[in-house]
Design brief:
Distance between the termini: 52 Å
Number of helices: 9
Radius of gyration: 21 Å
Helix content: 25-40%
Strand order of the largest sheet: 1-3-4-2
Number of domains: 2
Largest sheet: 4 strands, mixed
Structural class: alpha+beta
Shape: elongated
Number of strands: 11
C-alpha cells in the first residue's frame, strides 16, 4: 500500500527555521512543464478559478471530523477526482500529514494532531494531501522525495488550491514560559516566496489574483516578491518587453551567435547547419521554444499555447 508523507510541514510550527528566497526555482519550472505535458493546456486551462475562502472556512463550533471530511471533499471536487470518500484522522507525528495512495474507493488521510487545536490550516494540509492523490492517479511524479514534494506544492498552487499553503505562512506572538516571542510557521516544501511565484504565474496566466484572500501580512509580502520574479520571466530576451539593457545584451550575443547559460536563451544553426535560430523558455510553462532570428516575430508555445511577442 503506497503511502505519501509530507515532510515539508513539521508537526511543531517552530520545529525548523523557515527558508526564504527561491532555492527550488529550477524544479518548480520543471514541474510546471511536466504538469502541462501530462494534463494538456486545455485541462490546465479548465482550472481558472481558485478554491474560495468560504469553502474552507472551519468554524470552531463545527464537528472536527465532519468538518475535515467536508474540506477534503471540497478538494476532491475542485481537482475533479472521482467521488471517492476521504477519511480524515488526526494523530501526533513528525510531518503535517500523509495519505495512503491506494486504488480507492476510499483514501485515508492523517493530519497532525495540532490541527485539532488550530484549525486555520486544515484546508491547506488537505489541499496538499489530495493533490498527492491527483498526481498519483495521473502517474505523474518526480524522482526523490524532495523533488516530488516540490511538484506536489507547485501543482496544488497552479491548479487553484495552493494559496492556502501560502496563507499558512505567518508570524505571530507565542508564549514561551514567562516570555512572549514571535513564532513563525508555514506548510509545504516551497518557500513562501516560491509559493508567491507559482501563484503569480497562475494570476498572470488566468487573471486569478488571490492576494485579497491572504490573511497573513507575511504571506502577502511573499506573494509580491514572487510576483516580481514571475514578471521578470516575461521581460527576458528575446521578449519584446525585455527592456533596453536586455535588448542590448541580446543584440551583442546575436552578433556572436553565442550566449552564456545564465542568459536563458541559446542560438542554434549558424553556418552550414541552416539559418540562425534562438531557443528560450516559455514564460508560462517553461517549455523551450525555437524561432528564427529575423527581428520581430510572434511565437506560439506548442505546449501551453501562450502567444509571445518577440524581437529576435
Amino acid at each position: 500500500m503506497a503511502q505519501q508523507s509530507d515532510p515539508g510541514g513539521p508537526g511543531s510550527p517552530a520545529a525548523n527555521p523557515i527558508v526564504h528566497g527561491f532555492p527550488h526555482l529550477d524544479t518548480i519550472r520543471a514541474a510546471l512543464t511536466a504538469l502541462y505535458k501530462r494534463l494538456s493546456s486545455d485541462m490546465v486551462d479548465s482550472f481558472p478559478a481558485s478554491v474560495r475562502p468560504e469553502a474552507v472556512d472551519f468554524p470552531p463550533e463545527e464537528d472536527l471530523y465532519l468538518g475535515a471530511q467536508r474540506m477534503a471533499h471540497v478538494m476532491v471536487q475542485h481537482f475533479r477526482l472521482p467521488e471517492a470518500r476521504m477519511v480524515v484522522s488526526f494523530r501526533d507525528m513528525v510531518h503535517a500529514g500523509n495519505v495512503e495512495l491506494a486504488a480507492g474507493p476510499e483514501y485515508f488521510i492523517e493530519l497532525h494532531a495540532r490541527f485539532k487545536e488550530d484549525r486555520r490550516d486544515v484546508g491547506a494540509a488537505l489541499a496538499h494531501e489530495v493533490m498527492h492523490v491527483f498526481l498519483h492517479r495521473l502517474d505523474l511524479e518526480f524522482p526523490g522525495t524532495r523533488d516530488n514534494e516540490i511538484l506536489t506544492d507547485t501543482a496544488t498552487a497552479y491548479l487553484g488550491a495552493g494559496w492556502l499553503l501560502l496563507d499558512s505562512y505567518r508570524e505571530e506572538p507565542a508564549r514561551r514560559g514567562e516570555r512572549v516571542l514571535m513564532s513563525a510557521s508555514k506548510l509545504g516544501y516551497l518557500t513562501p516566496e516560491e509559493f508567491g511565484y507559482v501563484l503569480a504565474k497562475r494570476a498572470l496566466a488566468f487573471g486569478d489574483d488571490i492576494e485579497p484572500w491572504l490573511t497573513s501580512a507575511q504571506a502577502r509580502d511573499a506573494y509580491r516578491a514572487g510576483l516580481a520574479v514571475a514578471r521578470q520571466d516575461l521581460r527576458r530576451p528575446p521578449m519584446l518587453a525585455c527592456g533596453w539593457a536586455g535588448r542590448r545584451r541580446y543584440a551583442k550575443d546575436r552578433r556572436s551567435g553565442t550566449a552564456l547559460p545564465s542568459a536563458g536563451y541559446a542560438f542554434e544553426g549558424r553556418g552550414l547547419s541552416g539559418p540562425l535560430r534562438v531557443s528560450f523558455p516559455c514564460p508560462t510553462c517553461h517549455q523551450r521554444i525555437r524561432v528564427p532570428v529575423r527581428g520581430r516575430v510572434r511565437a506560439r508555445c506548442g505546449l501551453c499555447r501562450t502567444v509571445l511577442e518577440c524581437d529576435t
